[in-house]
Design goal:
Blueprint lengths: L5 E6 L14 H16 L3 E6 L7 H6 L4 H24 L5 E5 L8 E2 L2 H9 L3 E5 L9 H11 L4 E6 L4 E2 L11 E2 L1 E3 H6 L7 H10 L3 E5 L5 H6 L6 E4 L3
Parallel strand pairs: 1-2, 1-6, 2-5, 3-4, 3-5, 6-10, 9-11
Antiparallel strand pairs: 7-8, 10-11
């Protein structure tokens, strides 16, 4: 039994790279796709926003001397590549999908039209959003918050490499504690690594909850959708 009827899953590009940290690991992609299928089989309407950091990161390009806008557009194109990879993995296991790009490229993806996207969800097609927001200077976290609100999602599922939101970076601080619940205001004021400030502010304004969880533990996506005690719940109110 699913707790949520419509969810938006935020995947980083790095999540698709597996242990290599770069490119797309086929085994990792297949595992994530199988978990997405299990979510769909629960009767949940699923949308996905994917990053592109496994291929190209706009901030890194800008730090290397590239024009920031150009670097960000390159990063957006990387997210479309990842979206196509997810589509292929899902359709190989008979899950109907649509790739929707914020940057027009009609040969490989639909343009974003909200009413059409909503209709796809109603028909139980998995939406895979690529191209970020279509604008430089905005992260795919912000794209996730924007699209989740536009499609009236019940929750954003933020997939990470750790078990949830900690008081500090658990990879650097052995005393870091996992927070089972935190408010969006607290996450902003304490600079907790939930989502970037723009995305978090939007979710706070619209009262959209976020669940931060560990993608590397098989089955966690389904557990979160079922409402099990997994990860950190981030809400507007405590």
């Amino acid at each position: 039994m699913a707790k949520f009827g419509r969810v938006l899953l935020k995947l980083s590009g790095e999540a698709l790279a597996g242990e290599s940290g770069y490119g797309i690991d086929v085994d990792t992609l297949s595992r994530i796709a199988a978990e997405m299928k299990a979510v769909v089989e629960l009767g949940v309407e699923l949308a996905v926003v994917v990053g592109g950091g496994n291929i190209f990161r706009g901030m890194a390009g800008a730090a290397g001397g590239m024009d920031r806008a150009s670097a960000d557009y390159m990063g957006m194109l990387a997210t479309v590549m990842n979206a196509l990879a997810i589509q292929d993995a899902l359709e190989n296991i008979e899950v109907d999908t649509r790739v929707i790009s914020a940057i027009t490229m009609r040969q490989i993806a639909e343009p974003y039209i909200r009413r059409r996207a909503m209709r796809h969800l109603e028909k139980r097609r998995v939406l895979i959003f690529g191209g970020g927001t279509g604008n430089p200077y905005f992260t795919t976290d912000t794209a996730a918050a924007l699209r989740a609100n536009e499609i009236n999602a019940d929750v954003i599922l933020k997939a990470t490499k750790v078990d949830g939101v900690y008081t500090a970076d658990p990879n650097l601080d052995a005393t870091a504690e996992l927070l089972p619940r935190v408010t969006q205001h607290e996450a902003l004021s304490r600079r907790l690594k939930v989502m970037d400030a723009t995305a978090l502010s939007l979710c706070m304004d619209t009262d959209l909850p976020i669940v931060v969880f560990n993608l590397n533990k098989p089955g966690n996506i389904v557990r979160v959708v079922r409402g099990e005690d997994v990860g950190t719940v981030v809400t507007a109110e405590g």
